[in-house]
């Protein structure tokens, strides 16, 4: 038996490793889908990605099934060993001895029970657990063995004349192995902040070998910057601008050829002296308050804080928030616009006052007016004493830089002063590089400031903002849990801040930051206003158990405070006391029998009945075999072969029953968990957008990882153990009662004691299990959040602080884990004590009953009594564990009843779209009024307009005017309370949701891509030929970049991380062009690309919008590129086609549109062609055009 167990161990290790790999991939894809839920919904990809998830789950289930087969063998051995050993021993004994005595038989039966418990149950569990531990250790060891960058060198402090930032011409490649999560030089910057020493990043790396494939990311870049200098870096999309900053930060290491090769590189890595501030191109926002994001890891300085807010144009934004800078920001800043996130990240860099500022295109996400304020007040004034490196596409700022570097293909194409590089006539500097060109880049909000103040609708603006962003009350942040805006599914549109007059009307800056000196309670983290790294921080987390009930009660009270009134005052009150993220639901009391019943239904009634019959039958055969042995021992004719053959037959039946019942059970449980996973995945993806805004990513991943793992592994194991033990206890109890009724009085107190102890134990252990699950979610959320912001954390030297925060959350979770183990030890000791006392009483009663009961029956009863003690103790513990593990099933089932979006095509309540619908993009809004949720003011009020097919339309209006709300209403992401939206003659509310969204395409400001292949991201349904995909890529200037990556089947990293942000935006644009949609919407979709590429893209989009047909992109009959292009050009001359909707921050980007819609406070204020609106005396758009000094084209192009 031991060799058999050893052989199984080898398989356990292999299967566990394979299962873990599949689980990692499934959870990774789940995380991507949750974070990209908005894009998935707008693209109507829910079904597609759920199928991918189901496929990954099926692959994972194959390896789980292999593990279950080993478990089947182990559980079968538990019941096979004793009968098999008994048959072999007694058969052999009978061959060499004439008779079997009763004492010998029952002494041996008792002895044979020992290996069943120790060698089968104990040894198997020990080996399996040890194997899983070793697999986990190997995975951890592989991670910890990943190459890390070299430790930084701490040099003497630099003098004023010494260069602060130096690039020495080394080559860099993102494929250089370094370990994405490893510690870099920036981790120790906190140690040198007060020392004034310099840090050299990325020293020589001898292990790195220059790759001959794919080229280098950066090559031969050399420059030096002295203290206070400003270097502007520009270039086309994908030219290596962001990579320069990554090299300076030590996130990308220099390459070195192998020693001994020719022309061995001797250049060292870049040199950065002093502390560093960093603004990522995709701003990283921590789940916490506005102030926590700005102050970050620095000490509190109120006066400096005020100056930073003013310089970053944040003072007015904060002033109009009810909780001021104590307003909670959701995970990833999901309740902020892109511009607001960029300004907060820039304010963080300003506030920490570093020696070196590295800024990756922080001005693209804001409109030109705010951009000019940020550049002048923040970059040129607040940061004046720092050495600054600014990556930007806003080339109107380059003349103000001390030096300008033009990037091209990973190399420096030009470096010098603006006067020097402008003489080179570089294509990267031709468009929009002069101050005159900048004058045309007037924002919608800036032009609107010159309009009559009554048209600005300041009060509705405030009302709208409060309705969209209801912040948490001050003092309740919950860093790792806070995620998003209230159930509205909308981020505030960015534009300009409020004017000074509006700011004063809402409150002074002092009021906006009025909680500066207060220390607030932080859910699960114990954060302080001034971050400190000490052991006291961990101790604060351990106070969670004492305060959590109070916090939950307060949270529930806050959640119930909404009166449902639509008035402004009630909305403000709710905004002040409401919660940004719902507290995770936690059941209390016994697990409902409905949960057990649903699990049984998922197992399948045929399987359940079959397993039940086999369990009862197996125990009956096992008791019969022992009973037959007792008769054999008392028989006078023991030599009769019928005794041997009958006993052998019964043992054979035990073996035959043990295997099938285990196999059926574990197969059914795996099928049930897979079914539950698939249902949960589909229900989550079909949940309203507000669900993703009120539930952190970590919370959802907790259900799809840990909880599903429990339902896969622990719940089946404990359930089968409990069922088997129940049969053993029941069979033994009946036998003992029939054979020795005098022992019955012993069992009644035993049962009552076991029931009492179990009741005391399960109450505590079940709640501990639930709290352990709830406190695990913040761990997942915090870890996910930190991974996204690693470059920022490293740059600011905040690694220690985040380590302590993580340890605090881990301490809370471990406290509940320890409580679970402690309760298990508590019940184990008491059950052992009860069993010992019961065995003693049974033995005494047996001695007293001598002569009143047949010896063979007394021996059989004593044997079963001794075995029943251990089994009954295990039964009590396993039934309790079943209920504990059923809490994971309980949590998963919560996701199977989530509220859902309107039905899709084929579901009840949704009509199939008419055949051939829509033939064009003809769009009508008929008196549309929409709200984000019941009880809030409408964000669209009786909006009516008509856009014929082939029309391009620009949407303009101040922040909060309803531009994005109109898009959300079109995609049915918010509810339309009254009115109709009609696409090509059909009310979209009557069409299945997927049928509508497939006819709409949108390119958001924040691009979303998924891991897989380039083709899979462009055409996941595989409906287009390669020629069409290459044409779309060429139209957005990505063809060469994709070819360099390896073609359409090249790998796409998670979130498109192997592309620059600008390339990701262009990629999403190519995907939209391929989509056979009748309406194409752009929300500043080219904000992160250079102006030359932007002009080409705008031209391609407008031509595409006028195309009547799909331009034969679906043809797969060898259609050439020239044929496709000529077909599109011909179609562009025809009437009809698509509708193009563009949300603009700059008037110059929409001045050539066919139609303009001017929105204000959710109402349509003006509508018409640019020519008509520009000629309208006193009109809003006319004032905008006048303020911007633009010339309206005579005919729209």
Automatic annotation (TrEMBL):
<comment type="similarity">
    <text>Belongs to the ABC transporter superfamily. ABCC family. Conjugate transporter (TC 3.A.1.208) subfamily.</text>
</comment>
<dbReference type="InterPro" id="IPR027417">
    <property type="entry name" value="P-loop_NTPase"/>
</dbReference>
<dbReference type="InterPro" id="IPR003439">
    <property type="entry name" value="ABC_transporter-like_ATP-bd"/>
</dbReference>
<dbReference type="InterPro" id="IPR050173">
    <property type="entry name" value="ABC_transporter_C-like"/>
</dbReference>
<dbReference type="GO" id="GO:0005524">
    <property type="term" value="F:ATP binding"/>
</dbReference>
<dbReference type="InterPro" id="IPR011527">
    <property type="entry name" value="ABC1_TM_dom"/>
</dbReference>
<dbReference type="InterPro" id="IPR044726">
    <property type="entry name" value="ABCC_6TM_D2"/>
</dbReference>
<dbReference type="Pfam" id="PF00005">
    <property type="entry name" value="ABC_tran"/>
</dbReference>
<dbReference type="GO" id="GO:0016887">
    <property type="term" value="F:ATP hydrolysis activity"/>
</dbReference>
<dbReference type="InterPro" id="IPR003593">
    <property type="entry name" value="AAA+_ATPase"/>
</dbReference>
<dbReference type="InterPro" id="IPR036640">
    <property type="entry name" value="ABC1_TM_sf"/>
</dbReference>
<protein>
    <submittedName>
        <fullName>Uncharacterized protein</fullName>
    </submittedName>
</protein>
<keyword id="KW-0472">Membrane</keyword>
<dbReference type="GO" id="GO:0140359">
    <property type="term" value="F:ABC-type transporter activity"/>
</dbReference>
<feature type="domain" description="ABC transporter">
    <location>
        <begin position="199"/>
        <end position="434"/>
    </location>
</feature>
<feature type="compositionally biased region" description="Basic and acidic residues">
    <location>
        <begin position="480"/>
        <end position="493"/>
    </location>
</feature>
<feature type="domain" description="ABC transporter">
    <location>
        <begin position="923"/>
        <end position="1186"/>
    </location>
</feature>
<feature type="domain" description="ABC transmembrane type-1">
    <location>
        <begin position="1"/>
        <end position="113"/>
    </location>
</feature>
<dbReference type="GO" id="GO:0016020">
    <property type="term" value="C:membrane"/>
</dbReference>
<keyword id="KW-0067">ATP-binding</keyword>
<feature type="domain" description="ABC transmembrane type-1">
    <location>
        <begin position="609"/>
        <end position="884"/>
    </location>
</feature>
<keyword id="KW-0813">Transport</keyword>
<dbReference type="Pfam" id="PF00664">
    <property type="entry name" value="ABC_membrane"/>
</dbReference>
<feature type="region of interest" description="Disordered">
    <location>
        <begin position="480"/>
        <end position="509"/>
    </location>
</feature>
<keyword id="KW-0812">Transmembrane</keyword>
<keyword id="KW-1133">Transmembrane helix</keyword>
<keyword id="KW-0547">Nucleotide-binding</keyword>
<dbReference type="InterPro" id="IPR017871">
    <property type="entry name" value="ABC_transporter-like_CS"/>
</dbReference>
